[in-house]
Amino acid sequence: MSAAVKIGQVARETGLSIDTIRFYEKEGLLRRSARTEGGFRLFGPREIQALRFIRKCQELGFSLDEIRELLILRGEDVPACSHVKELLEQKLARVVKKIEELQTLEHGLRVALRKCDRGLKTSGMSHEGCCPVLEEISRATGG
Fold first, then answer.
1. SS3 127
2. Percent of the chain with pLDDT over 70
3. What is the DSSP secondary-structure string of 35-96?
């Protein structure tokens, strides 16, 4: 595609919403687009490639600030591989930590669910006794 296209076409080609494209422009991740006489935004191949790059970075979990940094590195003609590697290592370390936290949360929820199942089986589905999970939470919080 060599001609400039309107934002709706860009949205279809990149898989981004029109609002997202406008947001990226507003945040400075994408340079301000040219406009038609009627005020419609026009995007060329360079902007579309930048939007695809931004989308891929977001799929990898990079924040807008990190993407901004990657765009700068991408635009400069300097070796940036070691810096990008460092960013990736930091991102991976955060993901691994988050996975560990989620696994701990999953374990806690499974334990609580088993307690609920046992409590419901022994009480015969009555609501007379207090829920064992609520009792445990109350004890843990000093209540």
1. coil
2. 92
3. E-TT--EEE-HHHHHHHHHHHHHHHTT--HHHHHHHHHHHHSSS--HHHHHHHHHHHHHHHH
Expressed as residue numbers, the domain containing 99 is 84-140
By DSSP bridging, strand 5-6 and strand 34-35 are: unpaired
Q: Most distant CA pair in the chain: distance in Å? A: 75
The token pair at 43 is 């995007």
Q: What does the alpha-carbon distance between residue 119 and residue 132 come to, in Å, rounded to a whole number?
A: 7
Same structural domain for residues 60 and 10?
yes
Output Rg (C-alpha) for the chain, integer angstroms.
25
Starting from the edge strand earliest in sequence, which strands make up the sheet with 5-6, in order?
5-6, 41-43, 34-35
Report pLDDT digits (tens) over 1-54: 457 889 999 999 999 999 999 999 999 999 887 887 888 889 999 999 999 999
Q: Are residues 72 and 10 in the same domain?
A: yes
Residue 73 and residue 89 share a domain: no
Beta bridge partners of 41: 35
What confidence tens digit (pLDDT) does each residue in 107-120 have?
999 998 888 888 77
Tell me what pLDDT residue 1 has. Answer: 43
